[in-house]
Structures are given as structure tokens and as C-alpha cells.
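User: Continuing from earlier, I have the next pair ready.

Assistant: Great, send them over.

User: Here they are, in order.

Assistant: Folding the first of the pair now:
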Amino acid sequence: MPKLVLLRHGQSQWNLENRFTGWVDVDISARGEAEARQGGELIAQAGLEFDRAFTSVLTRAIRTLWIALHASGQVWIPVTNDWRLNERHYGALTGLDKAETAKAHGAEQVHIWRRSYDIPPPPLDAGGPYDLAGDRRYRGVKVPATESLKTTLERVLPYWTSDIAPALQAGETVLIAAHGNSLRAIVKHLFQVSDDKIPGVEIPTGNPLLIELDERLRPASARYLDEARASALPELAPV
């Protein structure tokens, strides 16, 4: 039975500052480092031995992975970085203070931009400080100007199918260290969560989610390793 662990990066510096981050490459905070280390210790305590790991091209996810693997004694495993596991792009909200944005546009509108499944924020203007068109990590990639969870899923799912699923189907134990929305996209796919329910699914930072999969890569069981910080999980789809 293949095993998959999903690990959301620890608190970032912009999480701490209550700013919309998206594709901006900020580091994790001291608390984020502690969360990643605790996640790795929980992985070790659970006796999980990974065959490979996947992460995004953003520092906060990469460092979370490094710290967790170091804490679990598995820094040597193969790691693949791919932009398709990046956080969703927050468009014109990028860099803005969340509370100030709610005052400017209304809390209800900001909630829609943040949590709806298919309504993206306004697009980011080209040429600004957060325009990543010239970033060499994205050479040959059409960098989005904004994304919803739906369009995030549309880039995550092909990568899941082409790279991650084959490793699991081969019986490997896989760790994915990524972001709240790219991981929510994977959860939506695996647990067959409906469009109207996925906005209510939350992935806590630094708390490994262990999912045991059947031969069709459907969840047979799922649990957070830190029960005290666990969020509610979607119901397992009927067999």
C-alpha cells in the first residue's frame, strides 16, 4: 500500500506580516523553522522512510523540506523541484497587507478572492516589483497574472499524473512539501472533494498529513501526525 505525506511549509516571514505571498519567494520565519523541525521529528517517530520527495521552486517550501528531512535523518533521498507545486498566484493582491486590503475592498470581497474555488483576484500588472516574467526559474513558463484554486489545480494535476502518481504506483513512499493551495488541490483530487466544499478544507503548517493509498491511488486512510494541531479531513470516498 503506497504512502503519501503532504507537508505544508512552516510559517513564512510574510505569513508573520499578514501579507499575500503567492509566488513571491520569501523565507520561513523562526517559528516556521521550528514547525518544519517538529514535522520531521513526527515523521521519524512514525517510522516513515521516504523513497523520494517533491517540492516547489520557492524557498519556504524547499527549506521546510530540508529541515524536515534533516530532522528525520533522510536528507539523502532524491528531491525534485517543480514550479507546478508553487502556491497559487494572488495577482494584484501580492504583497498587500491582508487586513488593509479587507478595509479597502470589503471583507466579503477579499474572502471571495481568498477562499472561493474559481474566482481569482484581479491580475497583477506587468512590470511591477512582483512581476516574475524575467525570473530564470520560470524560463519557458507562461507565468500567470493571477490564479484561483481551480486554475492552480489545472497546473498541479498534470504534474501529479506525470511525475508523482507513477512513483506511488511503483510502491514508493513519497513526501510532498509545498503550499496551502497546491496541497489543497491534491487533496481535492484524491478525496474527490466537491467544488463547494473545498474552500472549507484547511491544511495546517508543518503538520505532516499521512495518506495511505489503495492500488487506484485513492485514500484508504488519512491522519495528521500531530493530532493536537489537526484540521478536519474530507471524508474518504466510498470504495
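And the other member of the pair:
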Amino acid sequence: MSPRRPVVAFLTDFGAGSEYVGALHAVVARECREADRIDLAHDIPAGDVRGGALVLARLVTLIPGAIVVAVVDPGVGTTRRAAAVAAEDGGALVGPDNGLLAPAARALGATRAVELAPPPADAPSTFHGRDLFAPAAARLAAGAALSDLGTSFAPGDLVAPDLPRPVVAEGQLAATVVAIDTFGNLELLAGPADLDAAGFTRGDRIFAAVTDRRHPATVARAFDDVARKGMLVHIDAHGQVALAVNGGSAAQRLGARLGQTVTFGRWPLG
């Protein structure tokens, strides 16, 4: 059996089809021609480190042994650390140590980490994806040891993203919006245990709000459990509490944006 080809995967906020994504591919193809390359996601909202960290953490477990270049880097060119992290499955993470890598490193079981040496002095300060992270990933794919890339530090010292805990009481739940997908579904920083702690069960009528205006919703399992254009609260494919509208956009109905808090309570009011 021939040896397995190395896999290099990419996750960024560059935008699908942009030349910046192409540059990452080109660098890896130039430096390690035998590597297979995969695009995980390039539609992370610009500069959304927290959202990128959550998406990265759930995708990396699907590609064991891959070397993943992750770039959501609003602090590029500053003193933020650049890192490469080795995982228990033989893969690695490469990217800025700004909160983006830590959840994925935890999910993969990080074993070692290094601070990458900076790019050449004559390199631009604003494209470390091309000039620092992709070259490091290509070196790893070609067989370089992690220790060859920089100075060691403890994986536990990776910067953690800001992940606010939900506020839960009987009949009440408040959680942060961390993702809004193409359909306008809202993913929240809360899980099934938080719904249970609030006393919300399937079929319950509750409300959802980001302002003083409260919108009726139903705790449900799937979209068709409510009428068309009805709002539902459910556990999404990632195990998170989500708010959706059957055939519509929850984000538009509530006027919700990333980082806002959605509050749930009992309906009818009073």
C-alpha cells in the first residue's frame, strides 16, 4: 500500500473564490506538490475570530491527520503570536494565536505548540496567510518537525476566544448569537442542558427577543414541526441552541446581529 498523501486544509475569512485563497493554495502546491488540499470554509464573517474558532473546532475532527491553515486575523502585523500546534492524530493547526486555534486544539488533543519565526523583514505586514502560515503548513506536510518551525510553548497557553456563558433561570434563557447562516438561522452559545435548565421542552410556546419586541416561537425538533413562517427554537446539527423560521429568516425577523444576546421566556406573556 502506498503511503498516505499529506492533506492541507484551509479556513479563512477571505471570501470564497478570492485571490487570497488562491495564494494559500499556490504556496502549498509550490512547496509540497504531493499534498492534497481542501477548502473547509472561507465565508467566516470578516474578523470574526470567535465564530471562526467554533467552526474550526467542529470541522477539524472530520479530517484526522490533516494540517489546517486557519486565518481570521484582524491583528495581523501586530504583536499577536503566530503558532503551529501538533495534534494527537498526527495533524497540526497553523494560524494566529488570537483565540482562533484554542478550541480546535482542545478538540484534537494538542500535544505541542511553537511560536513561528516571523516572515522575512522585507515581506508585507498584512498577509501572513501567504507569507507565514501557508509556508509553515507546507513544511509540515513535507515532513518537517514542529520543533523546526519555531520556539516551543505550552499548548495550554493558547489564547482562548471570548465565549460568554448563557444566563439561565426557570423559564428564562439568554445567550449570545455566534453564527448567522445563509438562511438567517441564528446559532447561540447555549446547548441542550441550558434549554433543560430553563424548563423548556419540545412543544413549549416561548418568546425570543433581542429588543423589547418579543416574537412567539415553539421549542421543536425540526423545521416542519411548526407552520410555514413559524419560528422555532431547536438543537442544530452542531448541538447548539438555534433559532430559525420555517421558510424564512430568524435574523431578519428579530433584527439580530452577531454578538447580540437573544432572550427567551414563557409565552403567553403576563
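Worth noting for the second one:
DSSP finds six helices and 15 strands in the chain. The chain has two domains: 7-157, 167-266.
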